[in-house]
Amino acid sequence: MQHTETPGTEAAAPAPRLRWWTELPLILLVYACYSAGRLLARGDVSGAVDHGLTILRFEQGLYLDFEHPLNRLFTREAWIGIPADFWYASLHYMVTPAVLVWLFRSRAVRYRAARTWLMTSTLIGLIGFTLLPTCPPRLLDASHGFVDTMAQYSSYGWWGGAASAPRGMGDMTNQYAAMPSLHVGWALWCGVMLWRFGGSRLTRTAAVAYPLITTIVVMGTANHYFLDAVAGAAVMGVGLLLAPVVMRTADRVKARFVPAAAPVAADSSASGSSIVSVGCQTSAGERIPRQRESRFEDGAEPGASPKDAGDGAPAAAR
Length: 318
Prior knowledge:
Blueprint: E1 10-11, H1 20-37, H2 45-61, H3 67-76, H4 78-90, H5 95-106, H6 108-131, H7 149-152, H8 182-197, H9 201-220, H10 226-257, E2 264-265, H11 268-271, E3 275-277, E4 280-282, H12 291-295, H13 306-309
Antiparallel strand pairs: 1-2, 3-4
Protein backbone atom coordinates (compact mmCIF):
# COMPACT_ATOMS: atom_id res chain seq x y z
CA MET A 1 0.00 0.00 0.00
CA GLN A 2 1.43 3.33 -1.03
CA HIS A 3 1.08 6.50 1.00
CA THR A 4 1.47 10.05 -0.20
CA GLU A 5 3.02 12.24 2.46
CA THR A 6 1.79 15.74 3.01
CA PRO A 7 4.56 18.32 2.47
CA GLY A 8 6.06 19.59 5.69
CA THR A 9 5.45 16.44 7.71
CA GLU A 10 9.18 15.66 7.95
CA ALA A 11 10.37 16.40 11.49
CA ALA A 12 13.59 18.34 11.89
CA ALA A 13 16.49 16.43 13.40
CA PRO A 14 16.70 17.22 17.13
CA ALA A 15 19.68 19.17 18.41
CA PRO A 16 22.38 16.89 19.85
CA ARG A 17 22.08 16.53 23.59
CA LEU A 18 25.20 16.82 25.69
CA ARG A 19 26.00 13.74 27.76
CA TRP A 20 28.07 13.58 30.92
CA TRP A 21 30.21 10.74 29.60
CA THR A 22 31.37 12.98 26.74
CA GLU A 23 31.65 16.15 28.83
CA LEU A 24 33.72 14.65 31.63
CA PRO A 25 36.64 13.48 29.43
CA LEU A 26 36.67 16.90 27.72
CA ILE A 27 36.87 18.73 31.04
CA LEU A 28 39.54 16.35 32.31
CA LEU A 29 41.55 16.90 29.13
CA VAL A 30 41.48 20.68 29.54
CA TYR A 31 42.42 20.35 33.21
CA ALA A 32 45.31 18.06 32.28
CA CYS A 33 46.50 20.68 29.80
CA TYR A 34 46.13 23.30 32.53
CA SER A 35 48.23 21.26 34.95
CA ALA A 36 50.84 20.38 32.33
CA GLY A 37 51.05 23.94 31.04
CA ARG A 38 51.88 25.23 34.50
CA LEU A 39 55.00 23.07 34.47
CA LEU A 40 56.43 24.33 31.18
CA ALA A 41 58.25 27.36 32.58
CA ARG A 42 59.25 25.98 35.96
CA GLY A 43 62.96 26.04 35.13
CA ASP A 44 63.19 29.74 34.30
CA VAL A 45 63.53 30.91 37.90
CA SER A 46 65.66 34.00 37.26
CA GLY A 47 63.32 35.24 34.55
CA ALA A 48 60.31 34.60 36.77
CA VAL A 49 61.88 36.61 39.61
CA ASP A 50 62.66 39.49 37.25
CA HIS A 51 59.06 39.53 36.01
CA GLY A 52 57.74 39.49 39.57
CA LEU A 53 59.93 42.39 40.63
CA THR A 54 58.94 44.36 37.53
CA ILE A 55 55.26 43.94 38.38
CA LEU A 56 55.88 44.91 42.01
CA ARG A 57 57.79 48.07 41.08
CA PHE A 58 55.13 49.05 38.57
CA GLU A 59 52.42 48.66 41.20
CA GLN A 60 54.41 50.66 43.73
CA GLY A 61 54.84 53.43 41.20
CA LEU A 62 51.05 53.57 40.77
CA TYR A 63 50.32 52.98 44.48
CA LEU A 64 48.56 49.71 43.62
CA ASP A 65 50.63 47.42 45.84
CA PHE A 66 47.73 46.24 48.00
CA GLU A 67 49.57 42.98 48.68
CA HIS A 68 51.77 44.37 51.47
CA PRO A 69 49.07 45.53 53.93
CA LEU A 70 46.92 42.46 53.25
CA ASN A 71 49.83 40.08 53.72
CA ARG A 72 50.80 41.74 57.01
CA LEU A 73 47.21 41.36 58.22
CA PHE A 74 47.00 37.69 57.23
CA THR A 75 50.38 37.00 58.84
CA ARG A 76 49.54 38.75 62.11
CA GLU A 77 45.97 37.46 62.52
CA ALA A 78 45.85 33.67 62.35
CA TRP A 79 42.04 33.65 62.49
CA ILE A 80 42.13 35.39 59.10
CA GLY A 81 45.24 33.79 57.62
CA ILE A 82 44.31 30.14 58.23
CA PRO A 83 40.81 30.30 56.66
CA ALA A 84 42.32 32.28 53.78
CA ASP A 85 44.85 29.52 53.15
CA PHE A 86 42.05 26.93 53.16
CA TRP A 87 40.11 29.16 50.75
CA TYR A 88 43.06 29.45 48.38
CA ALA A 89 44.03 25.77 48.54
CA SER A 90 40.55 24.26 48.22
CA LEU A 91 37.73 26.34 46.72
CA HIS A 92 39.45 26.85 43.39
CA TYR A 93 39.09 23.11 42.76
CA MET A 94 35.67 22.66 44.37
CA VAL A 95 33.42 25.60 43.49
CA THR A 96 34.21 25.70 39.77
CA PRO A 97 33.36 22.02 39.12
CA ALA A 98 30.26 22.38 41.32
CA VAL A 99 29.00 25.31 39.23
CA LEU A 100 29.69 23.35 36.04
CA VAL A 101 27.66 20.38 37.30
CA TRP A 102 24.85 22.70 38.43
CA LEU A 103 24.70 24.32 34.99
CA PHE A 104 24.77 20.93 33.26
CA ARG A 105 21.87 19.61 35.32
CA SER A 106 19.61 22.64 35.64
CA ARG A 107 20.65 25.06 32.87
CA ALA A 108 21.49 22.68 30.04
CA VAL A 109 20.65 25.23 27.33
CA ARG A 110 23.27 27.63 28.73
CA TYR A 111 25.83 25.02 29.70
CA ARG A 112 27.73 24.67 26.41
CA ALA A 113 28.39 28.40 26.03
CA ALA A 114 29.44 28.69 29.69
CA ARG A 115 31.73 25.69 29.48
CA THR A 116 33.32 26.93 26.25
CA TRP A 117 33.94 30.33 27.82
CA LEU A 118 35.68 28.76 30.83
CA MET A 119 37.84 26.41 28.78
CA THR A 120 38.84 29.04 26.22
CA SER A 121 39.92 31.40 28.99
CA THR A 122 41.86 28.64 30.72
CA LEU A 123 43.81 27.88 27.57
CA ILE A 124 44.60 31.59 27.15
CA GLY A 125 45.86 31.59 30.73
CA LEU A 126 48.19 28.71 29.90
CA ILE A 127 49.73 30.84 27.17
CA GLY A 128 50.38 33.51 29.80
CA PHE A 129 52.03 30.99 32.14
CA THR A 130 54.30 29.85 29.32
CA LEU A 131 55.28 33.23 27.89
CA LEU A 132 55.50 35.15 31.17
CA PRO A 133 56.63 32.98 34.10
CA THR A 134 56.22 35.12 37.20
CA CYS A 135 57.51 34.70 40.73
CA PRO A 136 54.71 35.26 43.28
CA PRO A 137 55.32 37.70 46.14
CA ARG A 138 55.76 34.91 48.72
CA LEU A 139 58.83 33.54 46.88
CA LEU A 140 60.62 36.88 46.60
CA ASP A 141 63.53 37.64 48.88
CA ALA A 142 62.44 38.41 52.43
CA SER A 143 63.80 41.96 52.04
CA HIS A 144 60.72 42.76 49.95
CA GLY A 145 58.53 42.29 53.01
CA PHE A 146 56.33 39.32 52.11
CA VAL A 147 55.59 36.27 54.26
CA ASP A 148 54.47 32.95 52.80
CA THR A 149 51.30 32.30 54.80
CA MET A 150 50.89 28.89 53.17
CA ALA A 151 54.19 27.85 54.75
CA GLN A 152 53.49 29.68 58.02
CA TYR A 153 50.18 27.86 58.58
CA SER A 154 51.01 24.60 56.82
CA SER A 155 50.62 22.64 60.06
CA TYR A 156 46.91 23.56 60.11
CA GLY A 157 46.05 22.28 56.64
CA TRP A 158 46.63 19.49 54.18
CA TRP A 159 49.07 21.53 52.10
CA GLY A 160 52.80 21.74 52.63
CA GLY A 161 55.16 24.66 52.53
CA ALA A 162 55.29 24.60 48.71
CA ALA A 163 52.28 26.48 47.39
CA SER A 164 48.83 24.87 47.73
CA ALA A 165 49.98 21.42 46.64
CA PRO A 166 49.32 18.52 49.02
CA ARG A 167 52.08 17.93 51.52
CA GLY A 168 55.02 16.21 49.85
CA MET A 169 53.89 17.06 46.30
CA GLY A 170 55.27 20.57 46.03
CA ASP A 171 57.83 19.55 43.40
CA MET A 172 55.01 18.48 41.05
CA THR A 173 53.64 21.97 40.56
CA ASN A 174 54.96 25.14 38.96
CA GLN A 175 55.14 27.83 41.61
CA TYR A 176 56.01 30.49 39.04
CA ALA A 177 52.68 30.44 37.21
CA ALA A 178 51.33 33.58 38.86
CA MET A 179 50.43 35.69 35.81
CA PRO A 180 47.51 35.67 35.14
CA SER A 181 45.65 34.57 38.26
CA LEU A 182 43.19 31.89 37.19
CA HIS A 183 42.08 31.67 40.81
CA VAL A 184 40.54 35.08 40.24
CA GLY A 185 39.50 34.30 36.66
CA TRP A 186 37.63 31.12 37.55
CA ALA A 187 36.05 32.82 40.58
CA LEU A 188 34.82 35.61 38.30
CA TRP A 189 33.32 33.05 35.93
CA CYS A 190 31.52 31.37 38.84
CA GLY A 191 30.24 34.75 39.98
CA VAL A 192 28.82 35.58 36.56
CA MET A 193 27.09 32.18 36.33
CA LEU A 194 25.56 32.52 39.79
CA TRP A 195 24.40 36.07 39.11
CA ARG A 196 22.80 35.28 35.75
CA PHE A 197 21.19 31.94 36.52
CA GLY A 198 20.92 31.73 40.30
CA GLY A 199 17.73 33.72 40.63
CA SER A 200 17.79 34.17 44.42
CA ARG A 201 19.20 36.80 46.73
CA LEU A 202 21.57 34.24 48.29
CA THR A 203 23.11 33.21 44.96
CA ARG A 204 23.52 36.82 43.90
CA THR A 205 25.24 37.62 47.16
CA ALA A 206 27.58 34.67 46.59
CA ALA A 207 28.10 35.83 43.00
CA VAL A 208 29.59 39.10 44.27
CA ALA A 209 31.31 37.81 47.39
CA TYR A 210 33.13 34.82 45.93
CA PRO A 211 35.31 36.60 43.30
CA LEU A 212 35.83 39.59 45.60
CA ILE A 213 37.02 37.49 48.56
CA THR A 214 39.14 35.33 46.25
CA THR A 215 40.92 38.44 44.97
CA ILE A 216 41.67 39.55 48.54
CA VAL A 217 42.82 36.04 49.49
CA VAL A 218 45.27 35.61 46.62
CA MET A 219 46.95 38.90 47.56
CA GLY A 220 46.83 38.44 51.34
CA THR A 221 48.41 34.98 51.12
CA ALA A 222 51.14 36.49 48.88
CA ASN A 223 50.35 34.11 46.05
CA HIS A 224 49.54 36.83 43.50
CA TYR A 225 50.05 40.50 42.79
CA PHE A 226 47.12 42.81 42.24
CA LEU A 227 47.97 42.98 38.53
CA ASP A 228 47.82 39.17 38.37
CA ALA A 229 44.20 39.45 39.48
CA VAL A 230 43.53 42.14 36.89
CA ALA A 231 45.10 39.94 34.21
CA GLY A 232 42.92 37.01 35.32
CA ALA A 233 39.80 39.12 34.81
CA ALA A 234 41.10 40.33 31.44
CA VAL A 235 41.72 36.75 30.31
CA MET A 236 38.11 35.90 31.14
CA GLY A 237 36.97 38.88 29.08
CA VAL A 238 38.97 37.75 26.06
CA GLY A 239 37.67 34.20 26.53
CA LEU A 240 34.10 35.50 26.57
CA LEU A 241 34.64 37.27 23.24
CA LEU A 242 36.25 34.22 21.64
CA ALA A 243 33.79 31.61 22.94
CA PRO A 244 31.22 32.10 20.11
CA VAL A 245 33.99 31.74 17.52
CA VAL A 246 35.21 28.55 19.20
CA MET A 247 31.68 27.09 19.23
CA ARG A 248 31.08 27.90 15.57
CA THR A 249 34.42 26.35 14.63
CA ALA A 250 33.61 23.23 16.64
CA ASP A 251 30.21 22.98 14.91
CA ARG A 252 31.80 23.22 11.46
CA VAL A 253 34.37 20.57 12.29
CA LYS A 254 31.68 18.28 13.68
CA ALA A 255 29.45 18.81 10.64
CA ARG A 256 32.33 17.90 8.36
CA PHE A 257 33.46 14.73 10.08
CA VAL A 258 30.28 13.49 11.79
CA PRO A 259 27.40 12.44 9.47
CA ALA A 260 24.14 14.25 10.09
CA ALA A 261 21.14 12.26 11.33
CA ALA A 262 18.50 11.45 8.71
CA PRO A 263 15.23 13.41 9.04
CA VAL A 264 12.44 11.51 10.78
CA ALA A 265 8.99 11.40 9.14
CA ALA A 266 6.24 12.72 11.36
CA ASP A 267 3.48 10.33 12.48
CA SER A 268 0.45 10.99 10.31
CA SER A 269 -2.01 9.73 12.93
CA ALA A 270 -0.59 12.17 15.48
CA SER A 271 -1.17 15.13 13.18
CA GLY A 272 -4.77 14.14 12.55
CA SER A 273 -4.50 14.41 8.76
CA SER A 274 -5.99 11.74 6.51
CA ILE A 275 -3.99 9.84 3.92
CA VAL A 276 -5.60 8.83 0.62
CA SER A 277 -4.37 5.58 -0.90
CA VAL A 278 -5.84 3.38 -3.67
CA GLY A 279 -9.18 5.15 -3.52
CA CYS A 280 -9.68 4.54 0.21
CA GLN A 281 -9.69 7.29 2.79
CA THR A 282 -8.62 6.66 6.34
CA SER A 283 -9.50 9.01 9.16
CA ALA A 284 -7.97 9.41 12.58
CA GLY A 285 -8.50 6.17 14.50
CA GLU A 286 -8.89 3.96 11.42
CA ARG A 287 -5.98 1.64 10.86
CA ILE A 288 -7.27 -0.47 7.93
CA PRO A 289 -7.69 1.40 4.65
CA ARG A 290 -10.94 -0.37 3.68
CA GLN A 291 -12.37 -0.31 7.20
CA ARG A 292 -15.13 2.13 6.23
CA GLU A 293 -16.23 0.06 3.24
CA SER A 294 -16.51 -3.08 5.39
CA ARG A 295 -19.24 -1.51 7.53
CA PHE A 296 -21.49 -0.49 4.66
CA GLU A 297 -22.55 -2.07 1.42
CA ASP A 298 -21.12 -0.60 -1.75
CA GLY A 299 -22.77 2.69 -2.46
CA ALA A 300 -24.71 2.66 0.82
CA GLU A 301 -22.59 4.97 2.91
CA PRO A 302 -24.54 7.48 5.01
CA GLY A 303 -25.71 10.33 2.88
CA ALA A 304 -25.67 8.35 -0.37
CA SER A 305 -28.77 8.84 -2.57
CA PRO A 306 -30.82 5.90 -3.95
CA LYS A 307 -29.68 6.81 -7.40
CA ASP A 308 -26.07 6.43 -6.33
CA ALA A 309 -26.82 3.13 -4.59
CA GLY A 310 -27.87 1.30 -7.76
CA ASP A 311 -31.00 -0.50 -9.04
CA GLY A 312 -31.21 -3.08 -6.24
CA ALA A 313 -31.25 -0.55 -3.41
CA PRO A 314 -34.56 0.08 -1.55
CA ALA A 315 -36.16 3.43 -2.02
CA ALA A 316 -35.73 5.91 0.72
CA ALA A 317 -38.72 6.37 3.01
CA ARG A 318 -40.70 9.53 2.49
